[in-house]
Amino acid sequence: MPSLDTLINAFVTLFVTIDPIGTAPIFLGLTAGMTRPARRAVVLRGVLVASLVLLLFAFTGTGILDTLGITINAFRVAGGLLLFYTAFEMLYAKRQERKVQLSEAALRDHIANLAVFPLAIPLLAGPGAISATIILSSQLSGSGGGHWAGAGLLSLIILLLMGVAGVLLMAADVVDKYLGNTGRMVLTRLLGVLLAALSVQYVADGIHGLISGQ
User: Fold this and answer.
1) What is the mean pLDDT of residues 82-104?
2) What are phi and psi of 94, to 5 degrees?
């Protein structure tokens, strides 16, 4: 059975990479002019699609890597570097700018499919969240209980976070009103520091595993 610290680490890592708080104001812009029922429908569909994507990688992530001949330690290094890039963007406010650009492009070209793109992919289930899911799946599976137990625990965390994301997106106008620009900036940078530290740990663990052959 994974320790409480391991589960908290998984929760924090996925919360930061999914970033429902940072997605909320972008979602407001994407759905401007929509009625509340229509906005709710977009949220439900987007959260469902994002959940299915992450659950797929939670259960099959290491299997996909094995098929491609990629070791989990090599993926830890690559995933850690990708997460560090995400953290760098958060610290220097680049991630929000990039999300806005993706959202504006999607609004012009795919207005009928906002729930799938860009809400589900890449705003909720982006490369960083997918990388974190694969790494955490291996980590939880190796903490005792086997692959299915680890993937099951990770699935519960994913579903919990997606539920939180859904609630925050449905209440996006209220969240944005109380946080304001300053609140979002401070929170984003704090989460960026946490993600940077976690990503460095992933890289260190991956390098250690590659060197030791474990």
Assistant:
1) 66
2) -85, -30
